[in-house]
Amino acid sequence: MTRRHPIAILISGRGSNMRALIEACRSPDFPARIALVISNQADALGLDLAREAGLPVLAIPHRPFGRDREAHERAIDAALREAGVETVCLAGYMRVLTPFLVDAWAGKMLNIHPSLLPHFPGMHTHEAALAAGVAEHGCTVHLVTAGVDAGPILAQASVPVHPSDTPEGLAARVLEQEHALYPETLARFLRGELPVADHDSNVEAERNTTEKARE
């Protein structure tokens, strides 16, 4: 019998990649079940989608916490642990995490990013890819570490960039790949099929780089 690991999905908007994970989890042999969906936006459309799928949902808006990002993340962490979550999937979660949540879920938090990392981290990746004139673009599933979009890469999928591409058209083709890549990679990750570089070493290296940049 397939062990179904309890996962949580963190979203901020419509939950497009969350939908793909929901569909994958409907299969009895998929090694995950969704124990909780959390959004930092109470009006996120993805919460309605999750409710319609019969999933436990929770809105933990960040604004009441003001500038205290860690306090907001402590509320999220408490909810994750109360739900018995073992792995966290970021799916369009539009908040830069503090070391608190990164460390609390070290090696157990995944993210999907719309570029072929390490190229084009951060926002506006499709515009950046077109401006750079690259021949290929795509998406990456990676572990979350202290650096923005800098954690160990678990899997990638690519699409060709056409001369006629617009950011919107390129984004749509990449999104199709995201919807296939995220569930597949999550399943392989939970089954222990993916070799992952030492997480603690990566975190320490990123922090050392950050500290040197501040000096």
TrEMBL record:
Name the residues that bind N(1)-(5-phospho-beta-D-ribosyl)glycinamide: G15, S16, N17
- Give me the reactions it catalyses: N(1)-(5-phospho-beta-D-ribosyl)glycinamide + (6R)-10-formyltetrahydrofolate = N(2)-formyl-N(1)-(5-phospho-beta-D-ribosyl)glycinamide + (6S)-5,6,7,8-tetrahydrofolate + H(+)
Instruction: Tell me a GO biological process for this protein.
Output: 'de novo' IMP biosynthetic process
Q: Pfam families, alphabetically?
A: Formyl_trans_N
Which InterPro entries does this chain map to? Formyl_transf_N, Formyl_transf_N_sf, GART, GART_AS
**Which key words tag this protein in UniProt?**
Purine biosynthesis, Transferase
Indicate yes or no for the key word Transferase: yes
Family matches, as PANTHER family: PHOSPHORIBOSYLGLYCINAMIDE FORMYLTRANSFERASE
What is the designated name of this protein?
Phosphoribosylglycinamide formyltransferase
Name the species this protein comes from.
Answer: Tanticharoenia sakaeratensis NBRC 103193
The taxonomic lineage of its organism, from the top, reads:
Bacteria, Pseudomonadati, Pseudomonadota, Alphaproteobacteria, Acetobacterales
